[in-house]
Amino acid sequence: GEDVEQSLFLSVREGDSSVINCTYTDSSSTYLYWYKQEPGAGLQLLTYIFSNMDMKQDQRLTVLLNKKDKHLSLRIADTQTGDSAIYFCAENGGGSYIPTFGRGTSLIVHP
Amino acid sequence: EPEVTQTPSHQVTQMGQEVILRCVPISNHLYFYWYRQILGQKVEFLVSFYNNEISEKSEIFDDQFSVERPDGSNFTLKIRSTKLEDSAMYFCASSDSGQGSNYGYTFGSGTRLTVV
Fold first, then answer.
1. Least CB-packed of A33, A76, B13, B96 within 10 Å?
2. pLDDT at A107 over 60
3. Residues 6 or more apart whose Cβ sits within 8 Å of residue B33
């Protein structure tokens, strides 16, 4: 079945860039997503990329997709303490369109 | 901004008891979902629901689980006889499209179920 893998933790200093990486196995993915979960809240869609794109930029966020290596990354420029959260990578594919999620990367931003 | 609301936020239950987790999806959404996340593990798909019936379910969603839309606003997940391994955070989600979209899903903040 489909699988999505992410590292569990990332710690960065405020003002630096953060790069959260994700690998997936399903080559038929249509959309790939990044969700953000703040403490006590649900998963919130942060950004997405369609599978025929290589890059998408949205203000401080840059999503890079390498379809050959099945690698997705999320870069957050000028990381702030408010960016501290769990970031989930997800992809939909396999014919069902139901997103498959990773286990989330905890981003810790320290002063 | 429209929200998906889940109640209760925490539920503690004894093994073997029945629990019902409740969700109010976004009012104009037509597709509803339940996911769960066991502590430290991945967010796992349980079931999707459309037009008053299950459209897809995972291997996790066995006969102990059921879903219902009892009225025009609520969407419930029932676990008939809870087991210790059912302890997890349960997320409800809704979407306006069943075929994946650039809007993704809107998730509730979850119900933490603890089975003792």
1. B96
2. yes
3. A98, B45, B46, B47, B48, B49, B92, B93, B94, B95, B105
The answer, for A50 touching chain B at a CB cutoff of 8 Å, is yes
Beta strands in B1-116 (DSSP E): 5-7, 10-13, 19-24, 31-37, 43-50, 53-57, 65-68, 75-79, 88-95, 106-107, 111-115
Per-residue model confidence as pLDDT tens digits over A20-53: 999 998 888 788 999 999 988 888 989 999 888 9
- With H, G, I as helix, E, B as strand and everything else as coil, classify residue B5: strand
- Rg, Å, chain A Cα set: 13
Buried residues in B8-22 as b, exposed as e (16+ CB within 10 A): eeebebeeeeebebb
Of B103, B105, B109, the CB nearest to A40: B109
Token code pair at residue B17: 């008891």
Tokens of A68: 């050959």
Contact at CB, A97 and B99, closer than 8 angstroms: yes
d(CA A108, CA B102): 27
DSSP string covering B24-41, please? E--TT--EEEEEEE-TTS
pLDDT tens for residues B62-100? 999 999 998 878 999 999 999 999 999 999 999 887 655
Contact at CB, B104 and A50, closer than 8 angstroms: no
